[in-house]
């Protein structure tokens, strides 16, 4: 019997990951939740490939124009968690990496091809203005912190 990833996760970690409508498992790691939700929501690891998390976690002194530096112990622990739960962790393939070439390292979820195809033409300029930026997932997806990204 072959189970989908979602079904497998639900079996392993029920009931937390089994909640209805969940699109992407939210961050469960305490340090990541605490340190990466100060300026925006803690983005789920499964939205970016391993190389992206490594790039982000090794350039925190220049993080989208902010200094998000951490002590080395927390930094390494958070990087390990994000890498272990990345879109391509364990060599798995993910539809979210659609049209991302292996030599590209996306730094933004909001600029990936899947993201653009889901959002382009779906968001009014008024709504975007209210959210401030496409990085502010929770402004439009009220369930974002729980991994729910329905409208
Ligand atoms: C001091 C504030 C600050 C902290 C702390 C911080 N970030 Fe950010 N982060 C930002 C800013 C600013 C942006 C750009 C947001 C925008 O363009 O609206 C950003 C964007 C991002 C993006 C891209 C979002 C997108 O558009 O898809 C990722 C991924 C990200 N951060 C990961 C992290 C991780 C992982 C941590 C914890 C180690 C972290 N951030 C901690 C300020 C911060
Ligand atoms: C300005 C509003 C807005 C922002 C900000 C936004 N989204 Fe969306 N998102 C939408 C709309 C509208 C749709 C299309 C309708 C729908 O499927 O809910 C959508 C669709 C999606 C989908 C597809 C849902 C499905 O069931 O197929 C995902 C996943 C998603 N967004 C994730 C994100 C993530 C992650 C972020 C932040 C990095 C984000 N969105 C930021 C408005 C937004």
TrEMBL record:
<dbReference type="InterPro" id="IPR036280">
    <property type="entry name" value="Multihaem_cyt_sf"/>
</dbReference>
<keyword id="KW-0732">Signal</keyword>
<dbReference type="InterPro" id="IPR018588">
    <property type="entry name" value="Dihaem_cytochrome-c"/>
</dbReference>
<dbReference type="Pfam" id="PF09626">
    <property type="entry name" value="DHC"/>
</dbReference>
<protein>
    <submittedName>
        <fullName>Diheme cytochrome c</fullName>
    </submittedName>
</protein>
<feature type="signal peptide">
    <location>
        <begin position="1"/>
        <end position="18"/>
    </location>
</feature>
């Amino acid at each position: 019997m072959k189970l989908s990833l979602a079904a497998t996760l639900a079996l392993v970690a029920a009931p937390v990951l089994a909640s209805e409508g969940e699109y992407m498992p939210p961050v469960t790691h305490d340090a990541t939740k605490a340190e990466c939700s100060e300026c925006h929501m803690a983005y789920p690891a499964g939205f970016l490939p391993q190389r992206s998390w490594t790039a982000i976690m090794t350039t925190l002194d220049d993080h989208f124009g902010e200094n998000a530096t951490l002590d080395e112990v927390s930094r390494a622990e958070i990087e390990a968690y994000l890498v272990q739960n990345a879109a391509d962790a364990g060599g798995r393939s993910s539809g979210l990496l659609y049209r991302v070439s292996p030599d590209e390292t996306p730094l933004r979820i909001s600029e990936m091809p899947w993201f653009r195809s889901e959002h382009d033409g779906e968001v009014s300029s008024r709504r975007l203005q209210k959210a401030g930026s496409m990085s502010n997932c929770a402004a439009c997806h009220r369930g974002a912190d729980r991994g729910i990204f329905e409208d």
